[in-house]
Amino acid sequence: MLKQRFITAIILFSLLVWGILALSSDWIAVVLAIFIIVGAWEWTSMMEITNRILRITYVFCVMLCMGSGWWLLQHMPGLYYFTIICAVSGWITALFIVKTYPDNTALYSNKLVKSMIGILLLVPTWMALVGLHHSPTYGPYFVVYLILLTSVADTGAYFGGRRWGKNKLAPALSPGKTWEGVGSALIATMLFSVLGALILNVGSGQPLSIAKFILLSMIVVAFSIVGDLIESLFKRLVKLKDSGTILPGHGGILDRIDSMTAAAPIFVLGLWLFLDFELGANTL
Question: For the chain, which residues make up each domain, given as ranges?
Answer without folding.
Answer: 2-282
